[in-house]
Amino acid sequence: MNPDYAKLIENTLYFLALINPASKIFLLSTADPPYTWPQLRSISIRSSIAAMLILIVLTSAGGFLLQVVFHVEIYSLQLAGGFVLFIIGLNAVRQGRFHENREGITLSDISIVPLAAPLIAGPGTITAAISFSSLNGIQSTILCLFFALIINLILMLTSLHIGKFLDRISAIGPLIRITGLVVTAVAVQMMLTGIASWWCKSIPH
Question: Which pTM does this prediction carry?
Answer without folding.
Answer: 0.84
